[in-house]
Amino acid sequence: VQLQASGGGSAQAGGSLRLSCAASDRTFSSYAVGWFRQAPGKEREFVAGVTWNGAGKYYADPVKGRFTISRDNVQNTVYLQMSSLKPEDTATYYCAANRYSVQVQVGAYEYWGQGTLVTVSS
């Protein structure tokens, strides 16, 4: 499965961005998907995840109430709506697919997108 992350860019604090993760393969609809981020000098960390059918959604504490993950299995795309952005949200964001379940560990994901940069200024 090839993943293509897009939608990154620059935003002011308090603003919004929507990231997309598009897959090349229809089997993507059977995979759990996670969004991760990596800031310069820091380890990659889990941000949000969604089960294969969209019924289960999970968020890291720093983004709860501000970010929303969703998916459209007809379009083979997973979205991350980011609102009330903060400067500390600045990072490269990656989407990843896992054929079993949403996991917070980076190593649990088999397929990764190339990353999209989000920069939030104060």
Describe the protein.
By secondary structure, the protein is mainly beta. It is built from no helices and eleven strands. Strands 2, 4, 5, 6, 9, 10 and 11 form a seven-stranded mixed sheet that branches. The protein has a four-stranded antiparallel sheet with strand order 1-3-8-7, with no helix packed on it. The mean pLDDT is 97.
In short:
By secondary structure, this protein is an all-beta fold. The protein is built from no helices and 11 strands. The chain has strands at 3-6, 9-12, 17-23, 32-38, 45-50, 57-59, 67-72, 77-82, 91-98, 111-112, 116-121.
Count of distinct strands: 11
Report the β-strand fraction as a percent range: over 45%
Overall outline: globular
Oligomer: single chain
Main sheet characteristics: 7 strands, mixed
Radius of gyration: 13 Å
Quote the distance from N terminus to C terminus. Answer: 37 Å
Q: Helix coverage percent of residues?
A: under 10%
Helix-strand topology string: EEEEEEEEEEE
Uncertain residue ranges: none
Number of helices: 0
What attributes characterize this protein structure?
48% strand; mainly beta; 7-stranded mixed β-sheet; 122 residues
